[in-house]
TrEMBL record:
Keyword Magnesium tagged: no
Native organism: Phocaeicola sartorii
GO cellular component: plasma membrane
UniProt-annotated catalytic positions: H96, D270
Protein's UniProt name: Alanine dehydrogenase
Residues given in the record as substrate binding sites: R15, K75
UniProt domain Alanine dehydrogenase/pyridine nucleotide transhydrogenase N-terminal: residue ranges: 4-137
The protein's Enzyme Commission number: 1.4.1.1
Amino acid sequence: MIVGIPKEIKNNENRVSLTPAGAHELVQRGHTVYVQHTAGINSGFSDEEYEKVGARILPTIEDVYAIADMIIKVKEPIECEYNLIRKGQLVFTYFHFACDKELTEAMMRSGSVCLAYETVTDRQGGLPLLIPMSEVAGRMSTQEGARFLEKPQGGRGILLGGVPGVKPAKVLVLGGGIVGTSAALMAAGLGADVTICDISLPRLRQLSEFMPKNVKTLFSSGHNIEQELPVTDLVIGAVLIPGAKAPHLITRPMLKLMKKGTVLVDVAIDQGGCFETSHPTTHADPIYEVDGIIHYCVANIPGAVPCTSTLALTNATLPYAVKLADLGWEKACESDPGLKNGLNIVDGKIVFPAVAEAFGWKI
């Protein structure tokens, strides 16, 4: 199979979808790998490193899309890429269709096969291609939240861990999955007073067993969240419904319950955001203010640490990319029901129910 690796062009997206080691694996199995010039440079990989393992370098993104049977990316295609994707071409990447109608309709028009990282499942029903980036995003959500709590950044001027004689900041984490757990552990490690919420009592029991003593668990309900907001300095939204739009756990009226300069970090922004007042931002312009509350809603948080993120992501995606290249998407999905769950759009039709439901469409 001919595999194409275009350079990511979303704002401040510095990751690359395949490392030289990954390219070597595909080439050794008889596949041809084309990499766009400088695609890996921001993750620390030069064109020469790809060429040494047998990959070929192409000068433009148009060249890569034109020649490849399978495109492997990190982030969803943006508008200038829509017309480069052709009928029958397999695109393997994060899509997050449920919160982007324009992208969904463009991919339907293209007639391509859209296989989304975020809905591929493993035998236990987990999301193996979301986990590594969720771990990065969770850790970074605390790191960025701490940064924007600083007064020069617009925050309340609170040090997350406090100092002897001064109480630490209070952090509220909404969601006890991979993102929320990673965020809570990072915040706890910095010395914050952390509360983590979830609707699953079994998950809360698990969290209470291994979390540090400065992390408390709380059942996630509207009432409980409202009770926490007046005394919270940093809220991290880490709610996920696989492939579907995230629910709004904090509404606009609830902002008035918080102190001015409180920071909201919405890690669920790729799925529409879990705060009503959220809208996507970029690393170049990461925050905005609503009713005195700082919102951080960067849609590709791990893109800021590409040397870590690229390695973590490709560790997870490469076995699936190899299977797709070896067998073709149809046979690969027949042999692996979890990979089949990654199919979102095939030949102009939505095949993933949660995406159709997000727009009120029927499959």
